[in-house]
Amino acid sequence: MIDEIRRIEDDARGRVAAVDTVAELVELDRELLGKRSALTGTKRQMGALSEDERRELGAALNAAQESIRGFLAARRAELEAVEREVQLGAERLDLTEVRADRDAGHLHLITQVVEELEDVFVGLGFTVAEGPEVEDDWHNFTGLNFGTYHPARDMQDTFFVDLGAPREVVLRTHTSPVQMRVMEGQAPPIYSVVPGRVYRNEAADATHLAVFHQIECLVVDHGITFGHLAGTIDRFTKAFFGPGYSMRLRPAYFPFTEPSAEFDVQRPDGTWLELGGCGMVHPNVLRNGGIDPEEWSGFAFGFGLDRLAATRHGVTDLRELASTDVRFLSQF
Ligand code: PHE
């Protein structure tokens, strides 16, 4: 019987080695060690033996069982390693496709313009600030001196967000709400520029977009005058466009500045580009921002970046700025 056990063990070693998937190995495990196995069969015959023989046979059986378990475990580890290799091979990504000499792209035209303007203003001593694109009515309108029924609200067709009380939450229609946020957050002197995305509910055409970009400038300090405003706009125009360009101011109206103006930039060919609005910060706005208008004064201006970028690069349709066409984008 001992010989029989050895034979079973040898046979098991050969069969385990011949298996080549984990699934088959699980099957074989059951066959070699389960209730119907040859080993279990020999165990059943032990009843007819003497006690000594039984002890000897029991020890041999246990040893055989142990070594078969060992064969199974070792083969399982081998097969699992192989299967993992195969899986890794199948999931492998060929990163050599991402070649270093391919064109990796570059910043979008608008982003380039934002960064360049930030540099100009930082060079003039300004700090860059940001605010949320989803705004509340207070920051976008009411705090900026737009009365509840003020017709100027209609100058900026508004996207309302379905959140809270009706008409309470908006997609900001300009970067001016960040004026309020800057004043809330810090005491004067303030020299801030705020680039950002803004939204207006209007149909896009060659000279208008529903989603566009502005840059806002806010200065609050002792003794700030309209002269500082005009000088700052002139400086940035020349720094950004170059010496052939100049600017002019035209009287205008905004609820949050008084007096107010619109400013245009003149191209070297003599034509004018309407760029933005500006003015002295209205005393109500300073007060809403927690600043005493008897002590401090300030100016603000804001203008569209899309038109500015388009003018400088000879883009005639603003909608192209939202294009994903690489043939367009790669020109800049
Ligand atoms: N927020 C105004 C607009 O979008 C522009 C502006 C900014 C005017 C700051 C005055 C002062 O039209």
Summarize the structure.
With 332 residues, the chain is of the alpha+beta class.
List keywords for this structure.
single chain; 2 domains; binds phenylalanine; 11 helices; about 325 residues; BirA Bifunctional Protein, domain 2; about 40% helix; 10 strands
The CATH architecture designation of the largest domain is 2-Layer Sandwich
Largest sheet: 7 strands, mixed
**What ligands can be seen in this structure?**
phenylalanine
- Oligomeric description of these chains: single chain
What spatial form do the alpha-carbon principal axes imply? elongated
Task: Describe this entry's structure for a reader.
There is one protein chain. By secondary structure, this protein is an alpha+beta fold. It has two domains: 2-91; 109-329, BirA Bifunctional Protein, domain 2. 42% of the residues lie in helices and 20% in strands. The chain is built from eleven helices and ten strands. It has helices at residues 2-18, 22-33, 38-44, 51-91, 109-123, 137-140, 177-185, 226-241, 283-288, 305-313, 326-329; strands spanning 127-128, 134-136, 160-161, 169-171, 190-199, 211-221, 246-254, 257-266, 272-281, 297-304. The strands form two sheets. Strands 1-5-6-10-9-8-7 form a seven-stranded mixed sheet, sandwiched between helices. β7 and β8 (257-266) form a beta hairpin. α5 (109-123) crosses α10 (305-313). The longest helix is centred in the first third of the chain and has 41 residues, at 51-91. It starts with a helix and ends with a helix. The model has no long low-confidence stretch (mean pLDDT 90). The structure holds phenylalanine.
